[in-house]
Sequence to fold (461 residues):
Amino acid sequence: MRLLLVLSLLLIAAPAARAAQTAVYALTSDFVTGSLSVADLATRGITKDVATVNSDAVARSYGGLVYVVNRYGADNIQVVDPARNFQTVRQFSVGNGSNPQDIVLVSPTRAYVSRYGSADLLIVDPSSPAGLPMSTISLAGFADADGLPEMARMVWIEPYLLIACQRLTNYLPSNPSVIAVVDTRADTLFDTDPFTPGTQGIPLEARNPVTGFAENPVSGRLLIGCAGAYGALDGGIETIDPAALTDGGIVVSEQTLGGDVSDIEWTSLTRVHAIVGDGSSNRLISLGSGGVLDTLYVANGGFSLPDMEMNDRGELWVCKNPFPASAADPAGLLAFDAAADTLIAGPLDTGLAPIAVTFGTVAGPAPVPGGIAIDGAAPNPAHLQATISLRLGQAAVAEARIFDLSGRRVRSMDLGARAAGPSAAVWDLKDNDGRAVPAGLYLVRVRAGGHSASARVVVIR
Fold:
């Protein structure tokens, strides 16, 4: 099957390193109220209800902050700071009735918001109290008869932002779906087929893309799950080449999966985990080169496993929300060893039932005077440039040194005088001679005021 070919082609190198994660953030809901709970990844101890959110929300973690997309009926972005006892430090509207679906941050001051109830992709400054300045990019060219493209999940593969457009009519997949592509260097739509009149996106073979984009950490190849019409085995998992901006078609069908696909995650170079449902239950399954390898978990209810995410410890965390929940069948978070396909914890009580999960770092106290911390690099893996997020305890002159795996210094950068607090340094992925560095793993070491901090950046070509 095609899945065999795709997975085999990806077995080419070790997985890319990520910034160390220490916490799991779970959005919880009873469909009337919503809350944020947090778990320590080391102890799996959960602190419930650290912040109030909308009952319909998703969360993304970036630069030590949690960005909550409050969706239908709320229409805002809420920024929660774990280092300030999970205070909401900013909250701004993205348009009444716009029903935001996803947020992608490309820097601390620039983010893109997909909006289900609008034909315009929104650009915001998430560091601003009101998200200002705001601008938009029209996706009206991808709309169907109702005037909306129904934009959903997004991913940034530098320099392109890919936006899944479901193109539904009365919530039914009556039209072909497409991936719209935005060139974030100019904030303009990118035409993937200049030989066809108009601005073209990446057409999908299946319809109704409902999952996030799952990115292989080495090849960069993407997978996305399309549910088609719920209850009909007409969708599947498709592969997308973000370098060529082309669709590779369905690599595993819903007939093989045995249900509607609702989420997918790359969990190793050759293994994918998926959540599929048949209307009465949800199953967590693992997929390999031979197709379906195992069923890890079954939960009662049509959308009883609403979300999952893989962390940098090789653990797959899954939201369990059975219907009806009971003492014998409780809601909570499940943690699996993704390599062994075994349940290692859970259900862990999150208070209200979990509906979405993401990972991040619960920041400790501010750096001591003269200290420095690196909160991560984005994007990572990087293709054109990498932005290193810094925090200085006091004003100092900073410098960066970049080393390859052999320990050879490939780049020296004078970062100049930096004020205390957060700042950023940009590496253009070139060496001291101005040549593009080859693909691989690099160590970025920043020194300021006699202190230093390091981060790893993976470069892909």
